[in-house]
Amino acid sequence: MRDDTPAESETELCALMVRYQQGEMEAFEELYGRTLPMIRGYLRALTRDRVRSEDLVQESYLQVHRSRRTYDPAQPVRPWLLAIARHVRLSDERRRWRRASREVAGLDALPELPVPAEVEGLADRERLARALALLAADRREAVVLHHVYGLSFQEISRVVGVSEGGARIRASRGMAELRQRLAPGGDRD
User: Fold this and answer.
1) What are 52-68's pLDDT values in tens digits?
2) CATH number of the domain residue 136 falls in
3) What is the pTM of this model?
4) 16 with 86, same domain?
5) Considering Cα of 54, then 75, then 87, then 139, what sign does the dihedral take?
6) Are residues 16 and 108 in the same domain?
7) How many domains does one find in the chain?
């Protein structure tokens, strides 16, 4: 979900974060309300599991609370929050992988990928979800962050820990693959 005007929105989010750092719980409540759709959508797009993503959303905001003193008001809030959500998701994936490697259970089918309403008009929802799900995780993440949430490549580089050029390449290659998969006859996988 894109904000109305990212610069104004970032300024307002920064002010809320500073107030929250100073102990104002009302500021956190407003920050939470304004950023929840972004964090929820980001995690749903990457986990492809609504229940799991809600757990990760709660864990992300718990980490935000624990890390609030580390926020630098000179930096934008959205990439900082998304980096925390990304770290929470990756930690969860590592725990799940370790647990699954110890179990001798069969593989379950992947849950369906929820698609944010903002991109529904691009193609049939089910077809787009399938195409997004087939992208490599790093490319899918860059596409979602840039094309759905409107983050700049510099902001994406901060979130995922790659260079700005690396973020640009991931998003570009992801979109090229997505276009190819959405082209007539391109979704045969």
Assistant:
1) 999 999 999 999 999 99
2) 1.10.10.10
3) 0.63
4) yes
5) positive
6) yes
7) 2
